[in-house]
Amino acid sequence: MRKSKPTLSGLAHIETIISEDVEMIGDIIKGGSIRLEGAIKGNITTQGNLVVGKNATVHGNIQCENINVIGKVEGDVRCKHLKIFSGASLFGSVDVLSIAIEDNATFAGNCIRREDTSLSETTNTVDDILNITKE
């Protein structure tokens, strides 16, 4: 049986591509939709969507609209919709409206599921949310 490729519906409009041979140290603090194929050690904050490609790694916290993880993320995630594809891994706490985890994917951390639909309506950061849950 042939395995289907991950579908990235709703994430078709990518404004920035960080290629596989790029290793970046530092934060991304503004931007639109990003497809990451390389490695980032730093936080990512974008108003668009994020795709973490098959060979990509992120070591830092992420805040975005929606995220598809096909590679590896080590850090906390705050978004509306999160999908972790088969073979991918996410190690960290997540704050989401919805989460989908395929078979053979790894998720290790805590999950907070929100009811509201807007990230911009709240001033809480991922750190704020995590501190609230620890109290």
Distance between the termini: 49 Å
SSE order, as H and E?
Answer: EEEEEEEEEEEEEEEEEH
Main structural class: mainly beta
Uncertain spans: 120-126, 128-135
Average pLDDT over all residues: 84
Taken as a percent bin, the fraction of beta residues is 35-45%
What sort of overall outline do the alpha carbons produce when their principal axes are compared?
Answer: globular
Q: What's the gyration radius in Å?
A: 14 Å
How many structural domains are formed by the residues?
A: 1
Helix content: under 10%
DSSP helical segment count: 1
**Number of beta-strand segments:** 17
Characterise this structure.
- The termini are far apart.
- This protein has one helix at 126-134, and strands at 16-18, 23-25, 34-36, 39-41, 44-45, 50-52, 57-59, 62-63, 66-69, 72-74, 77-78, 81-84, 89-91, 94-96, 98-101, 106-108, 111-113.
- The chain is globular, with a radius of gyration of 14 Å.
- It has one helix and 17 strands.
- It is mainly beta and 135 residues long.
- The chain has a six-stranded parallel beta sheet with strand order 1-3-6-9-12-15, with no helix packed on it. A six-stranded parallel beta sheet has the order 2-4-7-10-13-16, with no helix packed on it.
- The protein has one domain (16-134).
